[in-house]
Specification:
Elements (H helix, E strand, L loop, with lengths): L7 H6 L11 H12 L4 E5 L5 E4 H17 L7 E4 L5 H12 L3 E4 L6 H11 L3 E3 L2 H6 L7 E3 L21 E6 L9 E5 L2 H12 L10 E2 L7 H13 L4 E3 L7 H11 L3 E3 L2 H9 L9 E5 L5 H11 L4 E6 L2 E6 L14 E2 L5 E4 L10 E6 L8 E2 L3 H6 L1 E2 L2 E11 L2 E7 L4 E3 L2 E3 L1 H9 L4 E11 L3 E10 L7 H12 L10 E4 L13 H10 L4
Parallel strand pairs: 1-10, 3-4, 3-5, 5-6, 9-11, 11-12, 12-13, 25-26
Antiparallel strand pairs: 1-2, 7-8, 8-18, 13-14, 14-15, 16-17, 17-20, 19-20, 20-21, 22-23, 24-25
Helix pairs in contact: 2-3, 2-4, 2-8, 3-4, 7-8
Length: 519
């Protein structure tokens, strides 16, 4: 755990990774607690009648599944899929895989067939731990053996976790593919340690008496798996498992009340839905969000709705949780993601690869414990990800004092009449308009200006699309931001293309804009 310090600077100065020679995440999140406090609650399962699963029970589940994997010939270093939603068996599956020295692959139940098949076959997985629903999804891959723990006669005996080092591969997480085909980021056993400082900060120094974690984000994604579930287990904080096929405000409020959740991670899409329905939540100790910038308007709403300041965090599948805000330690700066998390070194690089205070490429220096080993079977793309000792995130940013301000994805930044325009600021401004439910902004090719700003807007139910409303929105932005950055075109849509994690798929909007005639 982080040791509280009188200031952010003191916290960073006293921090070091101190990775041991032997490290296995199964021991971090399960074995240590099962031996020290076997009756301590690990997971609160709300998928049906409430069931509290202790660390002792979780270890029995993981050990029995580890034996089953070994009996079926799974070897150290082989890849094993986990196709399950939030549940105790989902956690036990990852733990079991790490116990035998294999590599787990989190897979999402809402994947369409092509997405699931491509990931499984790219990873070379021959065994997948799933449930009855998942078995049906895997039927098109006869080369894959599906294991459903609930339907198996599992051996109830102890499994001794194999010895692994911090650099041994442990988990293969596929990127969401918002800017291209999905790639597998291979992470080592140090990845959980690399997430811990950030999670502790944005959860208000997680591990305080009464803390209880939940996120509606699926545990198939790095945000659900390594921002919330695994750090919670490692710190002995109860983690709530509650499947939501689709985010529902009423169900969300019910889950938080029933489990007495104190620390919650809401993806931006969930926050927008809560805001649209005027929902407020009391009794939380910390609330956080990440995946895309929230903007000043959303942060101000959060203070009113939760009586808390929402802590934002920043990272990506390849190297996560490298910057965040922590209202308990330093006040946030509107429009900024936060400050660099202790243990990580983040820079903004210019075109020459030198650190700059101006706009540039956000990069993370080698040595971050949450940094991937590389892309699975893609050495060329791994090499392209780095510039010397710096891993390029593909994001554009700028320093605002000691705070990192997100400008946009490298391929999202709009160049119009010689100006470089980040879509996030325009989206944040439009979100403040009373009629806007959500919005995506991209650049559209233009003969005169190179690109123009194009906004795709989803309206709140009580508003109707019209040319006058579009003109009103243009003036709304023009009067609040630079006159060159207002959206010269606005189209109204019923819905925006979204990833399963709730991020706007800009490449789809970009393709739509490029196919449209120039007005």
């Amino acid at each position: 755990m982080l040791t509280r310090a009188p200031s952010y600077e003191a916290l960073c100065e006293g921090f070091a990774w101190n990775l041991p020679a032997q490290l296995n995440m199964a021991q971090q999140v399960c074995d240590v607690w099962a031996e020290a406090e076997p009756d301590r609650v690990a997971i609160i399962d709300l998928n049906g009648p409430r069931r509290d699963v202790s660390f002792g029970e979780l270890r029995v589940m993981a050990d029995s599944l580890a034996h089953a994997l070994v009996e079926r010939g799974v070897l150290r270093g082989e890849r094993v899929g986990v196709l399950r939603s939030q549940s105790p068996w989902c956690a036990a599956a990852h733990i079991a895989i790490w116990k035998i020295g294999a590599i787990s692959i989190p897979l999402f139940k809402l994947f369409m067939q092509d997405a699931l098949t491509s990931r499984v076959r790219d990873a070379g997985a021959k065994v997948i731990i799933s449930d009855a629903e998942g078995v049906d999804m895997l039927a098109v891959m006869p080369e894959v053996t599906a294991l459903v723990p609930e339907d198996m006669d599992l051996p109830k005996r102890r499994f001794e976790t194999v010895e692994t080092t911090p650099e041994d591969p442990a988990v293969l997480i596929y990127t969401s593919g918002t800017t291209g085909s999905a790639k597998g980021a291979l992470h080592a056993h140090r990845v959980l340690t690399g997430h811990m400082p950030g999670t502790e900060l944005f959860c208000g120094f997680l591990g305080q008496p009464g803390d209880c974690l939940w996120t509606p984000a699926d545990w198939a994604w790095i945000g659900g798996l390594f921002n919330i579930m695994m750090p919670g287990l490692a710190l002995g904080v109860p983690v709530v498992a509650a499947r939501m096929a689709k985010f529902n405000v009423d169900e969300c409020l019910k889950i938080i009340k029933e489990a007495d959740v104190k620390n919650v991670f809401f993806p931006p899409t969930a926050l927008r839905m809560l805001k649209a329905q005027g929902a407020g939540i009391s009794g939380l100790r910390a609330i956080c969000s990440g995946g895309e910038p929230l903007g000043a308007e959303m942060l101000e709403w959060g203070r009113e709705a939760f009586d808390l300041t929402i802590n934002e965090f920043y990272g990506q599948t390849e190297c996560n949780l490298v910057a965040c805000s922590c209202n308990e330690m330093y006040p946030p700066k509107p429009g900024c993601i936060g400050r660099v998390v202790p243990g990580h070194e983040v820079a903004v690089l210019d075109d020459a690869g030198q650190s700059t205070q101006g706009e540039g490429d956000v990069a993370v220096k080698r040595g971050s414990a949450s940094m991937m080993l590389g892309y699975w079977n893609r050495p060329e793309q791994t090499a392209e990800k780095f510039r010397g000792d710096w891993m390029l995130t593909g994001d554009r940013g700028i320093w605002d004092g000691n705070f990192l301000r997100f400008v946009g994805r490298e391929d999202d930044v709009i160049t119009s009449s010689g100006y470089r325009i980040g879509p996030a600021e325009i989206e944040d401004c439009l979100m403040q308009h009373d009629a806007v439910a959500t919005v995506g902004v991209v650049g559209k090719p233009d003969d005169l200006r190179n690109e123009i700003v194009k906004a795709y807007v989803v309206l709140k139910p009580q508003f109707q699309a019209s040319e006058s409303l579009a003109a009103e929105m243009q003036d709304f932005v023009k009067n609040r931001l630079a006159r060159y950055s207002y959206p010269r075109e606005i189209s109204f849509l019923d819905a925006l293309p979204m990833t399963v994690t709730g991020k706007v798929i800009r490449k789809d909007l970009k393709a739509r804009a490029m196919a449209e005639p120039v007005e």
